[in-house]
Specification:
By secondary structure, this protein is an alpha/beta fold. It folds into 3 domains: 89 residues, Arc Repressor Mutant, subunit A; 127 residues, 2-Layer Sandwich (Nucleotidyltransferase, domain 5); 153 residues, ATPase, nucleotide binding domain (Nucleotidyltransferase, domain 5). 42% of the residues lie in helices and 18% in strands. The strands form 4 sheets. A 5-stranded mixed sheet has the order 5-4-3-6-7, sandwiched between helices. Strands 10-9-8-13-14 form a 5-stranded mixed sheet, with helices on both faces. Helix 7 links the parallel strand 6 and strand 7. It is globular, with a radius of gyration of 22 Å.
Length: 407
Amino acid sequence: MNSQMQELASQSSGTAKIGSDHTAMRDRNERLVLSLIRRRGALAKSEIARLTGLSAQTVSVIMRALETEGILLKCAPVRGKVGQPTVPMRLNPEGAFFFGLKVGRRRTELLLIDFLGKPRAIRVARHDYPTPEDTLRFARHAIDEVLAELPAKHRARVYGLGIGAPFQMWDWGAALGLPAEAMGGWRACDIRAELEACYPWPVLLENDASAACNAELLLAEADLPGHFLYAFLGFFVGGGLVMNSTLITGPHGNAGALASMPVPDGTGGQRQLLDVASLSGLEARLRAAGGATEFLWESRATWDLDPRVLDPWLTEAARGLAHVAISATGLCDLDAIVIDGWMPDALRTRLVAATAAEIAKINLSGIRAPQVLEGRAGPDARALGAASLPLAARFLTEIDLPSVVAG
């Protein structure tokens, strides 16, 4: 969690006063209950009390309040062999809504998700490169348009906007083949502050790859190992580091900065992972072969790619990802690398298999090979992750739930 999110969570939950302030303690307990239900699914009050160690009365008060607020819904009663039936409670999909803005090198997207993380609306803008003026214009128009389409009762339940954007975008002009000054406007643009001035809810900013990793943690349905490296292949590759089921961003926000990590170039030298595992490299190969490239950014459902173009890129990307995964595992004792990206599902599956095959070729004496897993958040992970930022800051807790629920 970045410093702004920590400040918001602290203000909302009063973490500095836990133990001495009743309101802060109740807020913290509400977050714990909601985090637990999000992770485990519908739960009865008695089960929540058992898992959290909270008293039955405390849990009852919390869940009654959350039901009254429209955050939780009752499920059908479950009858056991003895005693009264239990009534599990689940998250109300329409209990809260969140906007996510993903600023990309080729696409900018605005997404509205519900409390379960399911997309309810999406708007997309295609461009050769993003400028602050165009990005702000698109974001305001898209947000206003989506709000106008929402019922009034849903508009009142919008709790925030998250932004996932590459940090220091002004440095990417050369990589995009642009004049140095083309993206210089981003140096003076505080997109978070600009948008927060327009709306009544908090606006949070995170690196786009870290946001995607956050989506994998919060919104993916499959169980994940507690320690993993996350890689998202967009125009440039990026990622995140997860330890104890928590996204680690580091003191400067650069933890999991996969793009900058060195990998062998096959001739005794080194390159950055950026150079071998980014879709910009695939685009360059297509262009060099005389093929069209626009379709890469318009849709990712199916790509009709010449194997003579795709296969060399796939091999280099898998080899680079394998070396990064092993390096990270040697340092952090990871369980897995999770690979996702803006690409067809079939291509992602091939990349995962190829990365596992490359890992098998590396001398792993002294460490255990990490699993290679497919991401479940999918191609919209960056926008989903951006939208999950205000969700987490407002309703969830960073307490290590796996240890809480282990009993």
